[in-house]
Amino acid sequence: MFSFMPVGHPPIKAHPSKPFRTLADEALAGYLMKVNCNLCRRTIYYLATDLVQFVGAAHPVHIPPFACGTCKTMEYMRMTVHSPQIGDYGRLPVRRIDKVVQVTKWKTVLLGE
User: Fold this and answer.
1) 91-106 tens-digit pLDDT
2) Are 46 and 94 in contact (CB under 8 A)?
3) pLDDT tens figures, 42-101
4) What stretch of H or E contains 43?
5) Which residues contact 52 (CB under 8 A, 6 or more apart)?
6) How far is Cα 51 from Cα 56, in angstroms, rounded to an integer?
7) Which residues contact 111 (CB under 8 A, 6 or more apart)?
8) Residues near 34 by beta carbon (within 8 Å), at least 6 away in sequence
């Protein structure tokens, strides 16, 4: 029925005369990234600068950085660039990084392993 494991994207090379836009390009321009799932119809807006901190500056704009949090699938995800309009300020909910938490996991092993 549904695959709940993230589906990897095949490596895609851009044409030398038309390189892919990256998150760093959109962050410098001050754009928002609109990430939507076409399966559950969930749409979330992110600041491109926040996504640069999360996935890196060289990440291509056309590839979503993660699977949907609701339906746990990557197959129906789509990411597009959104230029904020005057009416968006104060009305459009944008997801921001609150804090980064580091989790350490421990396991017990035999001495010498």
Assistant:
1) 999 999 888 888 999 9
2) yes
3) 999 999 999 998 888 888 888 888 898 898 888 899 999 999 899 989 999 999 988 888
4) strand 43-47
5) 23, 24, 27, 59
6) 7
7) none
8) 43, 44, 45, 79, 80, 81, 82
Query: Could you tell me the CA-to-CA distances from 80 to 23, 61, 98, 99, 101 in Å, in that order?
Result: 11, 7, 23, 25, 28
Reading the block at residue 17, the tokens are: 């005369």
Query: Do residues 6 and 67 touch, judged by C-beta distance below 8 A?
Result: yes
Tokens 């390189």 identify what position?
A: 19
**Six token digits for residue 67:** 């699977």
The total number of residues shown for the chain amounts to: 113
